[in-house]
Structure formats: structure tokens, C-alpha cells
Design a protein that fits this description.
Two copies of one chain form a homodimer. Chain A has helices spanning 9-20, 23-36, 47-63, 73-79, 100-111, 126-130, 145-157, 164-170, 174-196, 211-223, 235-238, 262-275, 301-320, and strands at 40-45, 68-72, 88-94, 115-120, 133-136, 202-206, 230-234, 252-256, 279-283. The first copy, chain A, is an alpha/beta fold and 335 residues long.
Chain lengths: 335, 335
């Protein structure tokens, strides 16, 4: 435990505080969005940023009657989306604030009367400039935190989240709880990195609001940063094709959530343990989350799972001697 | 050309006619659905059947103002969907009509007042039994054809598809046009099967209404039937991770559509031809479609591409000496 690689506990607390101490600012933005009128919600960005927000589309769907959809920024501009118009609130995210497709989509959306909430890193950026409600998180983390506060408060304003204040109070402990997850999972993450870093192919599976976490981790970390081949597939769809590839020697990593689709994940676990000796089950229910009431655990699943997975990345980086920052093509070539 | 394996031209024509000759029946169902009232549309099933219908969700989105979403049957039952209620028209499909999750979802949907259009194979089945508008296609094909007619007529009834009658008239030629596609593509399919059947890993890419075709072909044919490892990724998301895995020797298969997102596909082609010697581009625009007006080509892209891809399957089956009907687990084990 003393030797966790690339882990600065105090820095994680500081970064969570960067966002949480601005809770009032995010809530005021949500109040303004509510007062400006919201008839439907679109979640729109690209790649990992889109995946970060997709759990909030599910949260809105489950807790309210607001129509909500998720669309890739590039597909939106090419093909449109018939729900967009005045009254549409768009959630957008970009760490740099200058992701080309996301900025272009923001412009497209503004032309059609939509309002934009964006979460971006820098003090100023093209995406923030185009947004009606723009939050700049600097090096604050986790990336989900601004959305828990903004979306939670918006749902509260609409009468769809009666206990929002208690939920948001709990978020004061999120930074510490995620550090606890990192510590609880690190030993398994070290073992995982040693066991599986040289595998030629990984199957990754999850469902519900952990599906975007799984999709994004496989694509944006294992593929993009570590050049490891993956197939990610949702727990229910696993049984409609990918299962036939499972046999002894094939690594399958399953993320199990505490939310509504938990049984779909457990079904994969039961099948996979019969058919591969390389099954890893990461169950959100196994983590202690100090300072977090049990009733908020499921909603925090994406942030919890990303904290655990980060320990795999950090250990993979060391075991593979492959920095997570090296790319073959990204920002090295024009395409 | 004389020696196309597993290709019975007359049988394909017969099977297309099975559906087309019942155009009036499908249109009458669409008229009834329209008269019963449709406030929004849900596309819901599992695996390949869901993928077959997803292009029609895009068609509805692009041509009308009807809210439309696609949800996996298992996730629907576990987690719900806030758009479902009286006025919801659900499109469902199951070749057997007894897919467990789809039938259970149909029951769940009926309890909430939704109306169901289903397309199933047998004369009678549990899914058909639960449906308000049930079409039984027997061994009719392609699977998209009932949806072109039902969805097209429904949009026409709503005033969103002025030229529907001409489109539907063109569908009389669909069976012949798809045979022409099979013939035009077979030589390339044979070469593809020989070149790539033993590759340890394939990247498959597409966008828009060819994305579900790509997703489903990779999962339900290459993985499920041929036990070939794949990563399928949408053309825009390819650039947000998977691109880093491309290098000489890695096969990438790109489906290029004629619709709104064509440029997103061509961007992948330009990148991939720089970075792998194993690039296959299947461009829907390259096929002659006898009897089909140019203006309907884009809308027919999913059926056209599936016809071409079928030639890969049929040739892979021969080259790999691996029947498409063999499974390790499906319908052999309970899970």
C-alpha cells in the first residue's frame, strides 16, 4: 500500500476540492438553465468526453420525464437530430475546450437555438465561449463531479430529485472516497497489470451507466494509450455474439455496477467463470466509500469505477514501460 | 461469376417477393398505427435484430419530428425508458419470434400502454402474439424490407415522406438489385476471405445507418459464426482511440455509405490507406442497383451493404471450412 505507483493522495483531494468548493457556482448555473427553460436534453461531444457524460443521460432518463439523447458531435453535424431546438439544453465536455468537432457542434447547436452547458479545463476556450453556462475546472477532478452537481440540481429544480441537497453534501466526501477506492483496488490492479499486459486481445464488458466507462476505458486508455487490442461489448449484447470467442486463455474483464442493470452483469460473470481462467470481475459493490451514504452508491458508480480503473492504467504504464502519453498519430499527424 | 458459392439467385428473388407482395398488408398496418396515434417511437430488441432496426430510428429522426430512441430489450426492462407510455410505437424484431429478452420486453411495454409493430418469421410466435401489428415474413428477405414499407408508410401518413409511393414502387426491384450487388461484389469477397480469414484481429468501421450494419456484422457473423476477433468502432470515434492500433499488417474494413455521414467515412479511408496495407473499403456508391432510382440509394444503404457482406460470410464459410451454423455455446448451454 505504501508503494502505490503514480498516486498522490493529497493532490487528488486538492483536485476534488477545486470542483466541490464551487458547488454554489454550478448550482447557480443549473438554476439559470432551469429558469431559461429546458424541454429536452442532448448529450454531445466526442470519444471519452462523450462517454463521461453518458451516465448523466441515463440519470436524467431514470429520474425525470425529460426527453434525453446522446449524439456524437460529428454525426450531429452531418446528420442532425430532430430533438434540437429552442428549449434544448446540451451538455458538452472537452478537457482542452478546443476539440474541433465539439466546438463545431456547439456552433451548429447555437444556430438552432439550443443552450449549452459545458465543462472544460482552461480559463478560456472556444467551447466555453460558445456556452451559455460554462464551467472551467482547471485541473479539478473527477470529470464527473461538475455533472453530478449541475444535473442533480437541475433535476431538483424540476422537482425530480427531492434529496439532491443530501446527495450534493455527500459529494464533499467524493475525493476521499475515490482515494479509498484506489487504495482498496491497487493490489488487484498491480496483479492485473502483471498478468494481462501482454495479452494480444481483451474482452471488456459492462452495462447501464458503467457501459460508457467500459467503452471509454477500452478505447481511450487500453487502445489509445497502451496499444492493447480490445473488444468492448455491453453485458446483454455479450450473449448475442461475442460469447463465442470466450475460451480458456482469453481475458475477460467485467465491470459490475450497483444500479438497475446489475443482474445483467452477474449473468456474464456466471457464464464467463465457466469458460475462461482469465476472468476479472470488478464489482463496484466491493468498495468501501467512506463518507458516502449507501443510497448514493449506485449513482456514483461511474466515478468509483473510473478511480479503480485508473489504478490499472497507472500500473500498466509501469509494467509495460509505455507512458500513457505516447501516441503514434494523435496530435502528431493531421487527419 | 458462374461459380458463386452458396448463391441461389432465384431463391433470393422469391424471398424478396414474399415480403414485397404483401406491401398492402404492411401499409395497412402502418395506417392503423397512424390512426391509433403515435407520439414517439422506440426501437427495441437484442443483438442483430436490434441492429437491423436501428437504421430506421435514424430514418425517422431525419425525416420527421417524431422523438425516437433505440434501447436494448434487457436494459429496458432493468432500467426503464422515460419516453414509454400510451402513444409510444415500438418496433421489434426477432427471426424466431421467441427471443426471451425481446418477448419479456414486449410484455413490459404492453403493461405501460405502448403499441408494438413486430417482424417475425413463424406463422405464430410469442412476440407476434403480444404485438398490435404483427408481420410474419416466413423465409422472406431482406429483413429490412418490412421496415422500409411500414416505417416509410407511417412517415407518409404523417406528411413526412411525400414521395413514399415512388420509394415503395422502387422496392419491387430490391431483390434483383441486391442480387446484382452480390454478383458485383463476389470476386472481391472471395479475395477478402482468402486474404483475411486467418487474421487474429480485425478493425471494422462505419457511420450513420451503416454503423449498426458494421456492429452487427462484426458481432453476429465474424464473432458469433466464424469465431474471428473484431473491434468495431464508428467512423468518428475511430479517431478517438482505436486509430493508435492501426499499423502495417492490421486489417481494417471500412463500410462507406452514401448518406449524410459519408465524409466521416472517407476521412477514415484517407487515414487508413496511409497506415495499413490491409485496408478494405466497401463503398455503397460503387454498386449498380438496377431498377432503383438514384435518389433512393442512400436510404437503401443498409440492405445493400448487408447483401455485399453476405458474400464475405458465404466465402469465409468455405475458405475457413467453418459452417456459419456451428456455435460453442448458443443454444447449447443455458446461461
Amino acid at each position: 500500500m505504501a508503494d502505490m505507483v503514480n498516486f498522490d493522495e493529497q493532490d487528488f483531494l486538492r483536485r476534488a476540492d477545486i470542483v466541490y468548493t464551487r458547488r454554489a457556482e454550478l448550482e447557480a448555473m443549473a438554476d439559470r438553465a432551469y429558469e431559461d427553460g429546458v424541454t429536452n436534453v442532448l448529450v454531445c461531444s466526442v470519444g471519452g468526453s462523450l462517454a463521461t457524460m453518458e451516465p448523466f443521460a441515463l440519470m436524467i432518463d431514470r429520474m425525470s420525464d425529460l426527453p434525453v439523447r446522446s449524439v456524437h458531435a460529428a454525426e450531429l453535424m452531418a446528420a442532425g437530430c430532430n430533438m434540437v431546438g429552442p428549449g434544448t439544453l446540451v451538455l458538452m465536455a472537452s478537457k482542452s475546450g478546443d476539440t474541433v468537432e465539439t466546438v463545431a457542434a456547439a456552433r451548429w447547436l447555437k444556430e438552432r437555438g439550443a443552450r449549452i452547458f459545458s465543462s472544460t479545463g482552461p480559463d478560456a476556450s472556444p467551447l466555453a465561449e460558445l456556452s451559455d453556462y460554462d464551467f472551467h475546472f482547471g485541473d479539478g477532478r473527477p470529470l464527473e463531479l461538475p455533472f453530478y452537481l449541475f444535473v442533480g440540481r437541475l433535476l431538483a429544480d424540476r422537482g425530480s430529485f427531492a434529496d439532491y441537497a443530501d446527495f450534493a453534501d455527500n459529494l464533499a466526501s467524493l475525493g476521499g472516497a475515490l482515494n479509498a477506492v484506489r487504495k482498496q483496488f491497487d493490489e488487484r490492479a498491480v496483479a492485473y497489470a502483471h498478468a494481462y499486459h501482454a495479452e494480444p486481445y481483451h474482452i471488456w464488458v459492462a452495462s447501464g451507466d458503467l457501459w460508457p466507462v467500459c467503452y471509454s476505458y477500452a478505447m481511450c486508455v487500453l487502445e489509445e494509450s497502451l496499444w492493447i487490442r480490445t473488444k468492448s461489448v455491453s453485458s446483454p449484447d455479450f450473449f448475442h455474439g461475442t460469447l463465442e470467442l470466450l475460451e480458456p486463455g482469453v481475458p475477460l474483464t467485467l465491470l459490475v455496477g450497483e444500479g438497475a442493470t446489475r443482474d445483467l452483469d452477474l449473468r456474464v460473470a456466471r457464464f464467463a467463470e465457466q469458460h475462461t481462467d482469465k476472468l476479472t470481475v470488478i464489482d463496484a459493490a466491493d468498495f468501501e466509500l467512506p463518507g458516502i451514504d449507501d443510497r448514493w452508491r449506485a449513482l456514483l458508480g461511474p466515478a468509483v469505477m473510473n478511480a479503480a480503473l485508473q489504478r490499472i492504467s497507472k500500473n500498466m504504464e509501469v509494467v509495460c514501460k509505455h507512458s500513457l502519453d505516447i501516441r503514434r498519430y494523435y496530435r502528431k499527424e493531421a487527419y
